[in-house]
Amino acid sequence: MTEDSQRNFRSVYYEKVGFRGVEEKKSLEILLKDDRLGILPPHHESHVQVMMYRKEQYSDVLHALKVIRFVSDATPQSEVYLYMHRLESGKLPRSPSFPLEPEDEVFLAIAKAMEEMVEDSVDCYWITRCFVNQLNSKYRDTLPQLVRGDVMAVVGWG
């Protein structure tokens, strides 16, 4: 595949019409270096230990969801992240067939966008979780206005 076919279609379109686009991976790398999302602790010595704990927590929560048959290997990864987040926050519904809340739609949209930028599933979950928590704390009033495809545009990455 060529480099253009792997890039976000919006970036190619913006370049064609004369706008210099922002690469999502570069933007994410800059955010992670600044660590504005609170993903990593301030003390660099503890980063390895914290990441180990997060991987263990990810594995434990995923295992719990599989044991109660809430997710399977066929469940889309973004939905797995959503159910993990809901389980950790004490808001897991009784069945996966329950209708999604509007905030769940926002979470899924962000998770799908993050999946395109982050290769590791543990990192993707934690970045998505922290991003959604920041979004909820700062922009809660605007969340119902977000539609599936426009989340990244609203936060400035589209």
UniProtKB/TrEMBL annotation:
CC per GO annotation: cytoplasmic vesicle; endomembrane system
Annotated InterPro entries: TBC1D7, TBC1D7_dom2
Chief place where the protein resides: cytoplasm
Domain of life where this protein originates: Eukaryota
UniProt keyword terms in alphabetical order: Cytoplasm, Cytoplasmic vesicle, GTPase activation, Membrane
GO molecular function: GTPase activator activity
Annotated localization: Cytoplasmic vesicle; Endomembrane system
UniProt record, GO biological process: negative regulation of TOR signaling
Designated name of the protein: TBC1 domain family member 7
